[in-house]
Every structure is written in C-alpha cells, then in structure tokens.
Amino acid sequence: MIGFLTLLEKEFLRFWKVAFQTVAAPVLTALLYLLIFGHVLDDHVRVHDVRYTSFLIPGLVMMQVLQNAFANSSSSLIQAKITGSIVFVLLPPIPYSAFFAAYVLAAVLRGALVGIGVLVATVWFAELKVVAPGWIIVFALLGGGLFGALGMIAGIWSDKFDQLAAFQNFLILPLTMLSGVFYSIHTLPAFWQGVSHYNPVFYMIDGFRYGFFGVSDVAPELSLAVVVACFAAVSWLTLALLRRGWKLRT
Length: 250
Prior knowledge:
250 residues
C-alpha cells in the first residue's frame, strides 16, 4: 500500500502542479466547442426532444474525461521512458498490480477533475436535468479507467513522442469524435449507424448521457455491459504487459 499510495501521489502531483495546462486548457477547449456548435445549431436541431446545447454538454464532458484520462497515463509513461526516470519506479518492490492501479486511478482523477470543470463551465448555457446520477458516475469512472489503461498501453508501446501522437491522433481522437458526442447515431445513414455500434466509446457517451436525460440510443444496460467488457479486456492486456516488463525493462 505504501508503494501504491506513493506512486499515486506522484502521478497526481505530476498533473496537478501544471493544472493550468492539464485541467484548465481542456475546459476551455470544451467551452469553445459548445459556443461554436451550440450557437450554430441550437435553434435548428433537437435530439430526443432535447435542446441541442443541452444534448451536447454531457457529450463534451465525457469526451474530455476520456481524452484526459488517456493523456495522463500515456504522457507519464513516455516521459519516464525517454528521460530514464522509469527506473526509479521499476526498482522498488511495487507489485505490477499496484503500478497499474496507481496510474489508472490518477488518470481517472484527472479525467474527473476536467469533466467537473467542463460541467461547471458549460452548465450556464443550457438547462440540464440529472435523471439517474448513478449512471453518470459509473460511466465516468469506467470510461476514465478504460482510457487510463489504454493510455498505459500506448505509453508502454511508444518509444518516442511521435509514436504516441500517432496513437492518439489515429485511434483515440477518431473514436471519441465519431462516438455521438455531437449527434445522435439515429441521424446517420443505416450503414454508419451499424459502424457506430462497433465503437466502444459510443456506449460510454450514450450511457453517460442517459444519466442526464433518461433517454439514449441504446439501452444503458447494454452500454454498461460493453464498457465493462472492454475495461476488463484492456486491463488484462495492460497487466500482462506490465508483468512481462515489455519495453520497460530494457
């Protein structure tokens, strides 16, 4: 527990000491999305009988939770590998499970802080109901944990920053932007609706949004099952890589 708590504190302080960059900047980005898309489409689009601005806010919150959870763990590992400081984490007798838990929990904390910041900054622009707060919390935590673990995989796999940037730009960004953050998938042609169902981020966004409005594109129980399965699979793979020390103990 001492090793886990120490590593968790290190990871938390790593992003908190530059909170203006790691927390405030993503909040500003989400606010700009809301101002631009909300201003253009609010009078013309309603989704599930909900104003477009109201519909958009939960999607922006969850998108920032996921992207910042991924950024936290991935950037920490790649920086530690490039600077050589990873050795100070690997040398102490910290179990790989504690290593995994500390990095993922720190990623969840950063994602949650950014998500709360986005919600506080944007809630003034539209009326939001909270129908099922339990679903909001569950999907936020599972989504942040899943992307925190995925960030660990990206950080372990990458040997330099451009590889990590490629992972983020060609996988994470398309998955989040094409997940229903800005639209309901029922507005898409049938083919693209089918494709959207293979995007696990869609289920995170849809389930999270259900907690606010009580309506969703798919049943929240299905979304929860998909997210739990993905989290279990990604966590298993991350733990396996940590156990082997792949690209870490070199």
